[in-house]
Amino acid sequence: MTRSLKHVREANYSFRIVLYVIACLPFFSLVNAAAVTKKHAARPPAAPAKSEAHKSRAESDQASGTSAELAKESREAAGEDETAEFKHSPMVKRLAEFTGMSLEHAYWLSVLVNFAIVAGLIFWPAKKYLPAVFRDRTASIQKALEEARKASQEAKRRLSNIEARLSKLDVEIGEMRWSAEQEAANEEMRIKAAAEEDARKIVESAEQEIMAAAKLARRELKAYAADLAVSLAKKQIRVDPNTDQRLMRSFTEQLSANYPDGDRPKAGKG
Questions:
Q1: Which end of the chain is more exposed for a tag (fewer CB within 10 A), N or C?
Q2: Selection from 93-97, 162-166, 250-254, 256-260 with the highest mean pLDDT
Q3: DSSP letter (8 states) at residue 89
């Protein structure tokens, strides 16, 4: 990378030199044209008849031509005069004398020589560095194309994945809806079963409490009835000592008759 940057900088430096030379060429051409113009100005004036002819021609042009036509003619005349000045320059004359050509052919030959010189000044400094610059540029372009190709493939792959997922989206939505409905039904059944189980436990607990309360009530009622009967019996029956003895003997005889083997009930049991 550093080497390629160095080549680019050297190529830019050479290119600046060439541009400087090209910029100087018009200056040298203007100097040459000024010399030719000065030479023509140093020539003796033409005859009065020629100046009168030019005057009459200028008057006729002013009378018949429009401003646009005058401007066009002036531009064409200026171009022809400039071309004529270059064609009759000392350099072109020397080239014509050296080659034996006409001024027209020598002029075009000088144009071709100048073009070849400028092209050589551009090509000679750049031929050493331009191949490396072109190679680096080609490599960078190829790398960019390869990256663009990979990016395009990746984008196509992602697009195909997205399209596949979108095509399966309806199926996935249906499956999710069915799963949600199944879960809701199962949850409803579970809640109902739990509620029924809680109700059953509550009913059983209530029944057990009612039964326990009923047993307790019956026990208390029996005890109350027994106490009441005993108290009533005590109030109604009057027992003297003789009667008490007879009752005791009668109870003993009945007890002996009921338990002949001596298996009498233990005290404390009813």
A1: C
A2: 162-166
A3: S
Predicted local confidence at residue 268, as pLDDT: 41
**pLDDT, tens digit, 9 for 90 and up, residues 167-222:** 888 888 888 889 999 999 999 999 999 999 999 999 999 999 999 988 888 888 88
What does the mean pLDDT of the chain come to? 71
Residue 21, number of CB atoms within 10 A of its CB: 13
Structure tokens belonging to residue 217: 């009530």
CA 56 to each of CA 53, 78, 123, 220: distance values in angstroms, whole numbers, following the listed order = 5, 20, 54, 163
Which tokens hold the place of 80? 């022809």
Per DSSP, 44 falls in state P
Lowest-pLDDT choice from 128-142, 187-201, 207-221, 242-256: 242-256
> Residue 10, class by beta-carbon neighbours within 10 Å (0-12 exposed, 13-18 middle, 19+ buried)?
middle
Q: CA angle at residue 91 from 88 to 95, to 5 degrees?
A: 95
Could you tell me which residue, 110 or 18, shows the higher pLDDT? Answer: 110
Whose CA is closest to 88, among 28, 45, 25, 33?
33
Handedness of CA 34, 35, 37, 42 (dihedral sign): positive
Please report, as a single letter, which amino acid is at residue 168.
K
Query: Which DSSP string do the residues of 160-216 spell out, in sequence order?
Result: HHHHHHHHTHHHHHHHHHHHHHHHHHHHHHHHHHHHHHHHHHHHHHHHHHHHHHHHH
Question: DSSP secondary-structure letter at 47?
Answer: -
